[in-house]
Amino acid sequence: MEERSIHVIDIPKKIAVGYGILRRAGEFLKMVYQRERSVLVVLGPNVYSRYYHALRESLENAGFTVSYAIAEDASVDTAVRVANEAKESGAEIIVGFGGGKSIDLAKYAAKESGKGFVSMPTVASHDGITSPFASLKGFEKPMSVKAKSPDLILIDVDIVASAPHRYNMAGFGDLIGKFTSVRDWRLAHKLKGEYYGGYATSLALMSARHVSSYYKEIALGTREGLRVLLEALVSSGVAMGIAGSTRPASGSEHLFAHALTIVAGNKPLHGEAVGVGTIMMAYLHGLAWRKIRKLLKRVGLPVTARELGVTDDEVVEALTIAARIRPERYTILGEKGLTREAAERLARKTGVIERA
Ligand code: ZN
Predict the structure, then answer these.
(1) CA 59 to CA 6: how far, in whole Å?
(2) If 0-12 CB within 10 Å is exposed, 13-18 middle and 19+ buried, where does residue 285 land?
(3) CATH 3.40.50.1970 residue spans of the chain
(4) Under 8 Å between Cβ of 117 and 146
(5) In angstroms, what is the span from residue 152 Cα to ligand 1's centroid?
(6) How crowded is the C-beta side of 215, counted as CA atoms within 13 Å?
(7) HSE-up of 282 (CA within 13 Å, CB side)?
(8) How far away, in angstroms, is 233 Cα from ligand 1 center?
(9) Distance (Å, rounded) from C-alpha 202 to C-alpha 292?
(10) Where does the chain hold its CATH 1.20.1090.10 domain(s)?
(11) Least enclosed by CB within 10 Å: which of 51, 166, 261, 282?
């Protein structure tokens, strides 16, 4: 069936990772956009006070007119409001400048309004900064929806280096998740006949392997380490663009992370919860889960419920509901999900909850 269907690949036109990018943003936008001249920047109050002035200056020097919108919350309503603002003000390009929230709002607003989209992450916390998928509140379920791939990704390593270390390490956890997500995808292909892309799989897996071999530099937060981490996040985001779904980057470990958000709120960062989920799902997949656990520990990421700031019970509860969050996304957790007993055994066995 899928051999005859059309597969569309949506990937960025240009990606720049390096130093002094902020000052040169206008130059890069000019390379990608020939006719468009009006920019709306979506950003949070903190990024606004630290970097907006410099960004505006760079864009204005390159001949763009610039306005901004403050990212209030990562909801569909706010994204639609940003889209309307872009339409009313005549902006042709929407720039998401900041963490996941600003970027997801800009991404979705750009799709809604048919405008250009530029992603300018200020932190290396997850691969949504480069993927065509937006994760916003207000849909029925906590999942990402297809928005659009950035035309341009601009990453200033100096800005990312000044972001809180914990947030950047979360990106490492998000990438480690690819060890299990690609296994879940292959399983769904074998058991459910789902489309499976070997190339997207290799690319996603490479990003996890790459950061694993550079874990020391990444843990130290050196410029070199951050650059490796950022490039791996880009490559994982592009893998989703090539796959046409979040499949290569999001499997059972992500279902667990989403479930934990439902059960325990936003206490752990996304990538932290994904990391712990990966330990447990790697165990189920028969992968080297102890190695994954050690790797996470070495960069200072949580490996237990306590370190995540949640209770043992919340981890068990999240494991039992994880499979039902997205029933169409088949994973190692099966269709009905884990029983309480199975969930508890899994979490104990992998040391995520205290051994009784
Ligand atoms: Zn993720």
Answers:
(1) 38
(2) buried
(3) 3-163
(4) no
(5) 21
(6) 20
(7) 21
(8) 10
(9) 18
(10) 166-349
(11) 166
191: which 2 tokens?
Answer: 């058991």
Model pTM score = 0.94
Give the distance (Å) from ligand 1 centre to CA of residue 38: 32
For residue 282, give the amino acid letter: A
- Going from the Cα of 114 to the center of ligand 1, the distance in angstroms, rounded, reads 26
CA 126 to centroid of ligand 1, rounded, Å = 6
- d(CA 90, CA 208) in angstroms, rounded, equals 41
φ/ψ of residue 153, rounded to 5 = -120, 125
CATH architecture of structural domain 166-349: Up-down Bundle (1.20)
DSSP state of 81: H
Q: Do the bridges between strand 133-135 and strand 144-146 make them parallel or antiparallel, or are there none, so unpaired?
A: antiparallel
Q: Where does the pLDDT of residue 1 fall: very low under 50, low under 70, confident under 90, or very high at 90 and above? A: very low
Confidence band for 232, pLDDT divided at 50, 70 and 90: very high
How does pLDDT run across 5-47, given as a tens digit for each residue?
788 888 899 999 999 999 999 999 999 999 999 999 999 999 9
Ligand 1 center to 130 CA (angstroms): 11
pLDDT for 335 beyond 60: yes
CA 90 to chain centre: 29
| CATH code for the structural domain at 3-163 | 3.40.50.1970
